[in-house]
Amino acid sequence: QSFRLSASQCRCDLFLEMERPRDLAEVLVNGKHCGVRCWEPFKWDITSAAQPGSNSIELRVANSMQNLLVQEPRPSGIIGPVLIVPYKRVAFEWK
Length: 95
Known about the structure:
3-stranded antiparallel β-sheet; mainly beta; elongated; 4% helix; 4-stranded antiparallel β-sheet
């Protein structure tokens, strides 16, 4: 999948957030590994991998062995929205 970012969006900290991947998720942005998550929060910092303009994203999701071991089907894959959320950096001095 691809997405575009403006220069102003790239001045923020950028996080990819998934609501409910089942069960393990890995994120790559522009070919750069951003991490693997096995439990909540399913949130990745993609700031250093993202760039202004066109970006590519790869989401790898795998389910657990429960379907094989328990033989009880359960949902797998990307269930729910996937968002790229910008967070504005705020700096202040402690006095």
